[in-house]
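the two lines:
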Amino acid sequence: MMINSTDVVAVLPFISVALGSVGLLIADLLIPAERRHVTAWLAAALLLTAAVIALSLLGSPTFEAFGGMVISDPTAFFLDTLICTIGLVTILLTLRYNQVRGILRGEFYILLALSISGMTLVTHANNLLILLLGIELLSIPLYVLCGIARPRLESEESALKYFLTGAFASGFLVYGIALTYGASGTLSLQTAPAAPNVSGDPLLLIGIGLILVGLGFKVAAVPFHLWAPDTYEGAPTTVTAFMATATKVAGFAALLRVLHGGLPGMESTWQPLVAIIAAATMIVGNLAALAQQNLKRMLAYSSIAHAGYALVGVAAHDTTSVVFYLTGYAFTTLAAFAVITAIGSSEGEEMQFLEAYSGLGRQKPLLGAVLAIAMFSLIGIPPTVGFIGKYFVFQAAVAKGLVWLAVLGVLTSAMAAYYYLRVVMVAFIREGSAAAPLPTPSAPRNLAAAISVAAVFVLGVVPALLLSMIGNGMLSTTP
Amino acid sequence: MTMAEWALLVLLGALSLASALGLLLSRNAVYAALFLVLNFSVGAVIYLLFNAPFLAVTQVAVYAGAIMVLFVFVIMLLGAERLAPAENPPGLAYQRPLAIILAVALLAVAAWALLSGAQIEPSPSVAPRPDSSPQAMGMWLFGPYLLPLQVVALLLLAAMVGALVLSRKS
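prediction for all of em together
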């Protein structure tokens, strides 16, 4: 098979990030050890380029490439743009934090870029083989990134837990893919259920169920979420920020590809399953977050809860609402992590507990404001993007007759207000304690916080801006 | 399948089973590794019998060759030829009866499937690959599966960088 320009264009963001990360690997050798931030800036430039490329391809019509292995539509290119932007913001957060923590290493950025290349493949997957390879390519560098703060014990623990559960989840995924192939004789997401005599085949149903379990692990949906709190808590905060946002988006991209983009005619089969998982995820994630005193751990449970809200949109078969929700969630969470890395990049023990944030709003009003805005958006208070995002997914659920799911979502959101507002209260009302460290200044981090907060407000006030980009109900099933 | 092929298959199956048992029961790690080589090689012959020469060669080259060399190296480097006498860790006493029950259940299901005469055939939609020679495999890999092949290469690169990051003394 000859590769033509259509093939290249279809996965151009992936190709540019993949080639770029190999180039980064070579360039890093030439950069002296004390000038590692050059690697970081090179990686940032690479991701910016990839984001611009993906953005410029957003207008192109839907087409398949590599013999149907990959598909390119506005959703895919938008998610590419989003993932590359998240990577870019993460790099801005790392510059100071990683330096203080002694993990400003070239490999950090190479692995980050490799992981992003996997994510930009998942967004285009039209074939179970590509889906699996993309997920592995995004996961394996992340296992290492979690443990990169070696020999710090929490970091090693985080990496090991993530690796073991991740490998386990991959096992489910591979087994599910094998059964699906066995039932239908194809790995294509488009034709698998269309093969003769397989629509009701138990083999196919079990296969799809196992694939859902594997992807459920990746997005940390209940009951496959148990790895998330420990992994998020132990990993370096910059890695946690990346995992809570980019990995979540990529995991959902995989779910959207399998359920919304592929498997035509099987909606009635998976919808009840996804609805139940969404309900359990919203309830358990929010309940567990109530009890947390450690901010990183709280955000881990919060990320589980928000996976639940996004799953409501998945269950309602409304791709636009899911993509919008994820975009809003990603920028909001990045804003929160910008504050945590600011506190965490002071010398000495890392401050993760809520106590460390008391008086933050008085001593550093701007940083306190960013934290408060992030918390308001996570609750879903207008005019932040969190409100609009929740509005879209709940509306989609009601339109599909899943009223109970929407009601449950509103109820759990109200419950979530308690623990998010507690953070704001501690930061603004409580007196500052002498033990609380002052954040170290960092211009790139401030830029990252500014980008995130701007996105939270702009998308919250003018959601049409984003909606016009991703179009309505894209993800066409069969071209 | 001719009678001779059946006889060969039964013989190979018995050999495979015996080498697996030898692997599990031998208390010397080097013997266990050699039993594993035998097991892999028997598997390769079974693949040949099923007309999958590429898989057979890969099995020998990758498993019986490369991976076994790694195994033997690790055994030698650790000096772990002799296993310590078996003793059950106190918290895991339930594992042995559980394993026996599960193994018996698996055997029972397999025996039932065989004896009840259930037709074990691939789903009609799965078309058998007409040609599985190395040449045809190459055409597949560099034809329709070109993109996955390249992604696998990238994946291995990522794993290699990761392994170095985690193992290098900083």
